[in-house]
Write a sequence for this structure.
């Protein structure tokens, strides 16, 4: 008998659900192509990070209990976001330090939670994807994906095999874009300065496309690039690796078109 396909639960994330559902579809395509049985638990909500980072541990715990119920029965939990992945893998268990029943369950969930591209390469052993993208891209390393989950070389290895794609690195790809979840709300002036420095770094590469693995970072940088009149396209790395770049416009384009239509 052939080995059973791993049963994978996709944690979609709030931003993907509300702003860029195609990232979720791209993740499903990549996981299924790699031999996974993918399910999207309907009961899932937020990862709890906004409440956690704001010091509202009671709300974060309530959300965490729901996550444990929705995702407990799978072989793996995969997240197309370093930020939400980091929350589930490193911070969720600490919410139940005083609960001898839920702490082991949270630790078990953390042990089987992975960021999407890291899971493809490090767990499933994917070394190549059948995708084409004609253009010069640069890649931004999100803080959580890089520093909490160790995602750095994995997306670059897969991008190297994409037909027609050329990768041009920024001078400082690991520097924060200034989003930081609630950080950009609490410290808007600092955030704007940080993202402005990032867009200068992007422009210096000569790339026509910006990629990253965290939608929060991408929305932040896409917004600043748009305000500066930049022609750089912005996409989640999963969309390119799944060969979906021709199916959907870059991040920000559909929203801007709708805004223009309403004004007309």
């Amino acid at each position: 008998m052939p080995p059973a396909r791993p049963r994978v639960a996709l944690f979609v994330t709030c931003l993907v659900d509300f702003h860029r559902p195609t990232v979720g579809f791209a993740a499903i395509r990549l996981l299924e192509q790699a031999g996974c049985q993918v399910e999207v638990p309907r009961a899932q909500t937020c990862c709890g990070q906004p409440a956690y980072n704001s010091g509202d541990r009671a709300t974060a715990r309530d959300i965490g209990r729901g996550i444990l119920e929705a995702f407990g029965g799978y072989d793996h939990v995969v997240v197309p976001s370093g930020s939400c992945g980091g929350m589930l893998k490193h911070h969720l268990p600490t919410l139940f330090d005083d609960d001898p029943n839920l702490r082991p369950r949270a630790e078990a969930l953390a042990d089987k939670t992975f960021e999407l591209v890291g899971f493809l390469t490090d767990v499933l052993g994917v070394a190549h994807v059948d995708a084409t993208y004609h253009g010069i891209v640069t890649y931004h390393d999100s803080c959580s994906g890089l520093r909490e989950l160790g995602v750095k070389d994995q997306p670059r290895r897969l991008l190297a095999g994409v037909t027609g794609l050329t990768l041009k690195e920024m001078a400082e790809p690991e520097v924060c874009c200034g989003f930081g979840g609630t950080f950009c709300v609490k410290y808007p002036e600092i955030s704007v300065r940080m993202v402005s420095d990032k867009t200068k770094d992007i422009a210096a590469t000569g790339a026509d496309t910006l990629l990253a693995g965290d939608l929060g970072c991408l929305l932040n940088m896409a917004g600043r690039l748009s305000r500066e009149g930049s022609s750089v396209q912005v996409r989640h790395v999963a969309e390119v690796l799944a060969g979906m770049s021709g199916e959907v416009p870059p991040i920000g384009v559909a929203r801007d078109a709708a805004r223009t239509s309403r004004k007309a």
About this structure: The chain is about 50% helix and 15% strand. Confidence is low (pLDDT under 50) at residues 254-264. Strands lie at 7-10, 37-39, 76-79, 113-115, 132-139, 163-167, 209-212, 233-236. Residues 188-205 form the longest helix (18 residues).
